[in-house]
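Q: Could you fold this chain for me?
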Amino acid sequence: MKHSFLDKYSDGNSIIHRLDPRTKLIATLVFIFLVVLLPSASWITYGLYFMTIAALIIMSRVPITYIFRRSLVVIPFVLTIAIFIPFFKDGIAAFSFNILSWHLSVTYGGLETLGSVMAKAWLSILALVLLTSTTAFSNILKALEHLKMPQVLVMIMSFMYRYIFLLTDEVMRMKQARDSRNFGSGGKRLWQIRTVGNMIGTLFIRSYERGERVYASMVARGFDGHSRTLDRLYFGKCDAVFIAAWGSVLALISLFNLLY
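A: Sure. Below is the predicted structure, expressed as structure tokens.
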């Protein structure tokens, strides 16, 4: 099965690629923090933040279509949660309608809040996609470990990313075997539900047993719980200049938002 890895373009050679993973991780988290703190309907500030992240995307030389296609994948999940905001926000009604015995009104304030939530979510996702597209996932984990994130969480994310594709292949093989036995058109509904339940149980047992075997193999090879990569983390002059420039730009945008 063909998989789409998060760090597909992480082997590039742009200015952004060459930055220390800790620098990129901290810059991304600060950007997301400032975006989330913005008041609702700060449309000009949203535009300024978008221009800053778009400049980094251009500098990274990662295909723009890839970045935007990745970012739009998460939007439906955010919209599913935020779609009800316009119905519960107090304010002047933009329009209203009846569904059976329910009278629903959509307010202007609710629409503004919905737009703000979607804008913040999209900007944050763009920053995260840029981070994962320019940094190998192993280096992100190593940066998290250096920034004192709990070691257990780092190792859980490491194993999740390494084996989620293997488990996906396992599910596809089981589905193919199920379909080859005329699953869709044969048997009663109860039998089909029981078959799916057996598949889930089998997948859980196989995953558990594989995890035990992998852990035993890693311990036999000297695994001590730390994430190790061939690339050494190094904070250089470029990182200092980037942090200074990035911090200045974000400070100016924040100041603009406070004044205007």
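A (continued): The beta strands are 93-99, 102-107.
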